[in-house]
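Bug: token stream looks shifted between consecutive jobs. Job 1:
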Amino acid sequence: MKSWYILLFTLASFSLLVIIILSLLTPQIESRLKDNVTAAFIENDLNWVNVLVEGRKIILKGQAPTDWLRIKAKKLASNVSGVAVIDSQITIANPLQPYILTAAYDGKQLSIEGYTLNQQSRLHINNSVIDVYGKNNVTSEWQFREGQPSAWAMVTSGVISTLKILKHGKAVFKNQTIKLSGVAPSAKLKTQIDKQLSPYSNQGYVIQADIKVITPAISCQKKFENLLQREQILFAQGGSTIDLNSYPLLERLKLVMDKCEQFGIIISGHTDSKGEEKTNQSLSLNRANAVSSYLIKQGANTNRISTIGYGELNPIADNEVEEGRAKNRRIEFTIEGI
């Protein structure tokens, strides 16, 4: 009988010892868990989360900027070693903020960033635009959030696909308002975009399109400018004899003229400010005429070409330094009417 009392006393003593040890260790365990969870949030820029610990239970509080970040916070906490239970009491800050998506196309690459409801909606949009642009030409960054507008995946993927028609463009979706901007290669393609966008108005969306058209005249002007920005037509020093090294450039300019045969071309000469103003004006005109004569000999229509000499009147760089003077000694091609 005595041995039973001894055994009971031993068990009671051991239990009491365990309770005492646990009471001493629990604050240390809680502190370590809190530090580890908090460190995980700081590392992932979730500093707005407040962490409370009850044993191995983690209580999360705070206001998440988006539902996606609220879910991310809970997942991060659950991945911390030693955590048994997660009680997420995080709310969404500004739940009525606009539902936004932005898509930008630079002529090669498409980038998408914004909200969608879930993985299914994300996949619908991504797969639709990848079919149009190609997998390697699409980058996207998504946040999942409640409150997705009606037909969001269908409308956004459809509108984003129309950007491919543009030279470059951008679509901004804010709730059910769509702002589309960009540059169309022709008026015909702009009309095509308008037709493709019209069905989305029936889905309750308001479309605000600002599409500019590249006219043939502007396109031709750009081609002239691109050639002459990379290379200048050179002449004998102080004279109007064309340097032989400039003949290849003149041939390329002639090819542009042939492709833009519906437009008149103004060839203008410019000099630096060294020398007499009257002499410079005469030199610039003679150089413009020399270029015109060469092109006409190569088959250019004389009725399409006019020349003018500006002398030193229109500098594009500093005439006080040689580098600037070299830039000011130039020939320019301008489409009439631009």
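Job 2, same session, no restart:
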Amino acid sequence: MTLPPNVYDAEPIPAAAGEEIERLLNSGDLFRYTNEDSPVALLERDFAQALGAKYALAVASCSAALFLSLKALGLPRGARVLIPAFTFAAVPSSVVHADCTPVLVEVKDNYRIDLADFEAKLDGADAIMISHMRGHTSDMDTIMALAFAHDLPVIEDAAHSLGTQWNGRNIGTIGRIGCFSFQSYKLLNAGEGGILITDDADIIARAVIMSGAYEHNWKKHPVLHDRFARWQNKLPLYNTRMSNILAAIVRPQLAEIPRRVRDGRRNHDYVAARLNASPHLQVPAALDQELRAPDSIQFNLTGFTDVETQAFQIAAAARGVKVQVFGMSTDNARAFWNWQFLGEVPDLPQTRAMLSRACDARLPARLTISELDTIAAALTGAAEDVKEPELAYST
């Protein structure tokens, strides 16, 4: 029996990162504001250039970036922020942290926002935070048109979408602000960390101050000193800065983005074709405007009961591939009904039904075709174990 591949280990960190970290450790120069050309400042410069944005601010996590984005918009206490009901708990948490109110929008079985529900909830909203959850992009043309018509700022939670494009534009550059993650399971791996990008000078100035550029540390940012001075001592300091160590780990990986995107897309599409050949599994297609950069795969179980869904998870695990069904895993942080910190959880039957059959499996870019075949066979075989037991056990 072929052993299943290890899908949890990340790729090795480039040797250049180790050399830079050794230099930092020998000098003790770990704080981003000891000089203007710190590793954090260089990462911000290079990341903005890579995405085609004017400004970037590296921070402690993508959650911190989302929180700072909301604060930098100057939203009033209690502001209503539309978010997809299918996202990670950190997204509504960032809204609550910013003293705002999350308004959950239904999501369809292709993992994208239900535009009818979205439009119905725009009246009374103050901002929009779009999660490109697991790299699936909602219809950004329609979302941006509606946002413009209602004069609402859009924040893109692009934690899962670095390298994805929409009509040739990098995801994260379409809304007012884009936020990315450097957590270990993302395209760039620093263990933790995040970054926000924007073309708005006032937003970046406010975000820099609030991130923890106390006294005159904002002068170590290369531009916009007049904008920073305007906000000196007028904004709270949340101290969400990134350290030089994290930046030193991330920056050498920027050169790996095209290769990781290419291989991740190849792997996803290869396995998706295998799964879609099964009558029991369905991988939603990309939208026409979307060029994805996936490092995992999501698929729906078709015609499964709750009992059969649980049996599928067990059968896949027995074949060596761990699958989570978002709505069937205890305390899953991506199931909106587990966000009890919101108080009253809304009734969102469409999203609940989708999550109860939506499966998630890791598919890192480093896997070989042989390893992909093993994963695909395990998933299709597990479905046959449940839905076609006579066929599964007759060979």
